[in-house]
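ligand=UD2
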Amino acid sequence: MRFIKPYVLLVIAGIFLLLGSFFCAAGNSNETRHSHEFNENQPFSFSLAQDNVVQLNETSCNTFEFSILCFDLANLHCLTSERQRLRHVLYVYFSFFSERLNRCTDVVAVTPWLAPIVWEGTFDAVLIDNIYKPMNLTVATTVFAVGKYVRFLQDFLETAEKHFMVGFHVRYYVFTDRPHDVPSVNLSQGRHLSVIQVPGSNRWQEISARRMEIIQTTIERQIRGEADYIFCLDVDSKFHAHWGSESLGRLVAVIHPGYYEQTRDRFPYERRPASTAYIPMDEGDYYYGGAMIGGFVEDVYTLAKVCRTRFEEDAGNSIEAAWQEESHLNRYLLDNKPSKVLSPEYLWQDFKAKTKEVKVIRFSGVIKNYADVRPNV
Ligand code: UD2
């Protein structure tokens, strides 16, 4: 030490001081950059209040979808112990800025009453599954196969096993006058099938229309105690791609593929004021397909009961609505707005060429020879 001059010591100390301040500055700038990125990814803050209502401090296209998701979750009366987990999941969901919703361009993804319209690219299937799967839900699925329509059951069930509510408990209720012709299809674990015998008819209009009555009475007798949600589907159809928990909601309807590009004066609503299904020319939201209704069991129960009563009232006045129960469904949904609307991806028709908005066909009616399968023409 005695050979080191004091000025050398001063130079070494200076170097250490310089290096120290350099590392400090670098550390701070890293922190600043990191917190900037963090803010960019979290442009919204929210909190779950006691009633699971989410409070947001900013709005965007995504807010619609997000608030409706929360609305449905609130309806499920999530347990308080679940709230912390939901807070996390909802945040992650909210951070998911889907390209289609964010741009709000080629399709409208929300109704004027702020219900989501479910299109491919507007949701994250894995995230939504992560919310609903822990709830241990059972989904009832009703399907009518009366007369020759029993021939459609095999494809319907086999494709449902591949694509429909996979990973959920599903209870199929098959209504038929030919129980012995119901095919045996291998069902995955947690999925069951009940066959319920119903009378045949020599009028297809009656078979189609009586579905509401039978759904109503079967919910009263059986389904109410066995399921949380219900979907009522046409049997002459096949699943082609994922149909999952993104479709769950309090009251769910599907936009008919034949009318999603039409203005409402072109919708085939019942136009005769004498019918209880009557919709004037200047009213109506969408033309909903009768091949799918869904929602909470109790909400679908009320829908079926009201439509059945109105159908019978019309029959008493010797009037049958233009498209039987589909006309009554459309009148009901005009007064009782669905909480979720499925795009025509969830109800396509095989004879119809795919359009550019429809990225995925999930469920589609097969081409059938009406004269061959119906009891009357
Ligand atoms: C339309 C609707 C259908 C219903 C009907 C009203 C779409 C795509 N389809 O279909 O949901 O509203 O118009 O009249 O929106 N069925 C039998 N046996 C029969 C006849 C019918 O089981 O002999 C059942 C079967 O489940 C069938 C459903 O009723 O899927 C509807 O009948 P449809 O498919 O013949 O009616 P369609 O194709 O005109």
